[in-house]
Write a structure and sequence with these properties.
This protein is α/β, with parallel strands linked by helices and 186 residues long. It contains 5 helices and 8 strands. It has a domain of 129 residues: Transposase Inhibitor Protein From Tn5, Chain A, domain 1 (Alpha-Beta Complex). Strands 1, 2, 3, 4, 5 and 6 form a 6-stranded mixed sheet that branches.
Length: 186
C-alpha cells in the first residue's frame, strides 16, 4: 500500500475497519450503485443462491447447517446470495449483489424472505430493468407469486412435471407448453 508506517500498523488499521458493523451495507450499496447504470431492459439478472462451507470452523458466529453443493453433503457454514448482470451478446459480467446469511441468526425469518429481500434491493437499484434468471428453487409459489406481483420479468428453470401453469384457462406442465411452441429454427 506504499504507506510510510509499519505493516503491523497497516494491518491493525485495516482490521479495525473490517470490524465496523456498517461496512458490509456500505460496500453493498456502492456495488449496486456502480453496477446499476450498466443494467438495461433485457440484461439478464442472474440470481445464484449457493453455500460457503466452513469445514473446520467451530466458533464462528451463527454457523448453520448448509448443503455443500460441491461435496453433495451436509456441512456447516453460511448461505450465499449472488446477483450478477450479463448481456446475451456481451462478454462482461456486472456484479450487483453478494451477501451471506445464516439460518441461526436471530434476525433470520426464512429463505424466501432472504431471497425476496435481495431481489427487491437489486430491482429497486436497477429501476426494475432486466430479466431475472433463476434455477430450480425459484419455481416455488413463495417466489413466483411475488415476482408476478412486482411485475418483474423472469426465466426460471422448473422442476420436472410437478408444476402446472395456466395457459388459455387450462393447467399445463412446462413440458406440454414447450412442446406446443412453434420452433421455426429447430
Amino acid at each position: 500500500m506504499e504507506e510510510n508506517i509499519s505493516i503491523k500498523k497497516t494491518e491493525e488499521r485495516l482490521s479495525r475497519q473490517l470490524g465496523r458493523r456498517s461496512l458490509g451495507s456500505i460496500v453493498q450499496h456502492n456495488l449496486l450503485k456502480e453496477g446499476s447504470s450498466r443494467i438495461h431492459k433485457d440484461t439478464l439478472l442472474i440470481f445464484d443462491p449457493s453455500d460457503l462451507r466452513k469445514k473446520y470452523a467451530k466458533k464462528m458466529e451463527n454457523l448453520c447447517t448448509i448443503r455443500d453443493g460441491s461435496e453433495k453433503e451436509l456441512g456447516t457454514g453460511y448461505w450465499l446470495c449472488h446477483v450478477v448482470g450479463a448481456e446475451l451478446q456481451g462478454e462482461s459480467v456486472v456484479p450487483l449483489y453478494g451477501g451471506l446469511y445464516s439460518t441461526e441468526s436471530s434476525d433470520f425469518m426464512s429463505e424466501n424472505r432472504e431471497w425476496l429481500s435481495v431481489i427487491d434491493s437489486v430491482s429497486k437499484a436497477v429501476s426494475k430493468r432486466g430479466i431475472w434468471v433463476m434455477d430450480r428453487g425459484g419455481d416455488r409459489n413463495e417466489i413466483l407469486g411475488p415476482l408476478l406481483d412486482r411485475r418483474l420479468r423472469f426465466l426460471i428453470r422448473m422442476v420436472g412435471g410437478r408444476r402446472h401453469l395456466e395457459v388459455g384457462g387450462k393447467g399445463k406442465t412446462p413440458l406440454e407448453i414447450a412442446l406446443s411452441c412453434s420452433c421455426p429454427y429447430a
